[in-house]
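Summary of Year 1 activities. Much of the first year was spent building the evaluation harness for sequence design. The harness presents a backbone, in tokenized form, and records the residue chosen at every position. We chose the following record to illustrate the format because it has been used consistently in internal testing since the harness was completed.
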């Protein structure tokens, strides 16, 4: 694969940050929320038309699985586990996170979406 290679990855669950380090000396702390809403999965990217992911302000990563020598699979605590993040994507998400984040916030506002977690509805059934 062309481009910088991943040399280290550290998850800080308390801060909800994934820090990635590359062989060109660059290191980026990427928020879990940004990783989740930017997932390269088919669920998020659909069939050529990206789906806006919302309500992920408090999302965290439960596990990280290596995929060969080119990517990691991130397993999120909201159940999302189908995104494979190649080194190149992690590099781009880290390097360009400010622009990617602003674009996301603009899309969210345009669609009247929210970053806030959904509040579970309590349903009571009577006999």
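For this record, the design step produced the sequence shown next.
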């Amino acid at each position: 694969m062309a481009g910088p290679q991943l040399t280290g990855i550290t998850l800080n669950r308390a801060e909800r940050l994934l820090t990635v380090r590359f062989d060109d000396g660059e290191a980026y702390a990427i928020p879990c929320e940004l990783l989740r809403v930017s997932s390269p999965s088919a669920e998020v990217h659909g069939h050529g038309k990206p789906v806006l992911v919302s309500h992920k302000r408090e999302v965290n990563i439960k596990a990280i699985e290596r995929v060969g020598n080119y990517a990691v699979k991130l397993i999120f605590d909201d159940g999302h586990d189908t995104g494979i993040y190649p080194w190149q994507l992690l590099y781009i998400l880290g390097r360009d996170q400010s622009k990617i984040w602003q674009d996301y916030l603009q899309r969210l506002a345009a669609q009247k979406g929210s970053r806030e977690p959904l509040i579970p509805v309590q349903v009571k059934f009577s006999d």
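The chain has four helices and six strands. Quantitative recovery figures across the full test set are reported in Table 2.
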